[in-house]
Amino acid sequence: AAATVAITPTQAVTATGNAAVETYWQTAQAAIQAGRWQEALGQLTSLQRVAPDYRSTEVQDLLFNTYVNLGTEKDNSDSLEEALLLYNRALELRPTASEIVKEIALIQLYLDVLTVTAVDWARTIDLLEQLYALEPDYRDVSERLQDAHIAYGDQYVRSEQWCLAADEYAVVATLSNRADAGQKQLAAASQCDQFG
């Protein structure tokens, strides 16, 4: 005679829950392998929500890497605010991740530059110089720094502060061989010599 086994409703829910947990895990793994970071993030966060203790160390590591990779994607597509949010989430998981701390600092400084450009040239230059010191090749920092010095010099010219204008243009000459900066520097220096 065949034996019958009674399954309680709790056992049925647990079996279904275990299948869902394993599905989240497998789908997250496949998404990570394919570089589909947004999908991986969704699967991993769903997995954490339904089974917080399931492979918790592995899930935390995968979440960290997913946040970093998705943050990098957003950073590369100029979605800086989203990148910043994702890098901060990664940092919550690994507070000592120095490469993430640096990326956050770079993005925050760059966003600050975007906020003050054309509003406060002195502040813009200060922020760009901080960025340049951290990472000279970051985005368009070198070009923006030169443009900011030229714009600041132009502002001084408009108020006939020739010597200060010449100083701003001279800084650009030390950063590059831009002809416009050289010409402006010579003209402002001439006016500075003549009028002070």
Give a short summary of the structure:
The protein is mainly α and 196 residues long.
List keywords for this structure.
single chain, 196 residues, mainly alpha, rod-shaped
Please, could you describe this protein's structure?
This protein is an all-alpha fold and about 200 residues long. Helices cover about 80% and strands about 0% of the residues. The chain contains 9 helices and no strands. Helix 6 runs antiparallel to helix 7. The chain is rod-shaped and about 85 Å long. Residues about 1-15 have low confidence and may be disordered.
The fraction of residues in strands falls at under 5%
Estimate the global geometry from the Cα principal axes. rod-shaped
Q: What oligomeric state best describes the polypeptide chains here?
A: single chain
From the alpha carbons, calculate the radius of gyration and give it in angstroms: 28 Å
The percentage helix is over 70%
Number of strands: 0
Can you count the helices? 9
One letter per element, helices H and strands E, the order comes to HHHHHHHHH
Any low-confidence stretches, pLDDT <50, length ≥5? 1-16
Averaged pLDDT:
90
Largest sheet: none
State the end-to-end CA separation: 111 Å
Q: What class do helices, strands and sheet pairing give?
A: mainly alpha
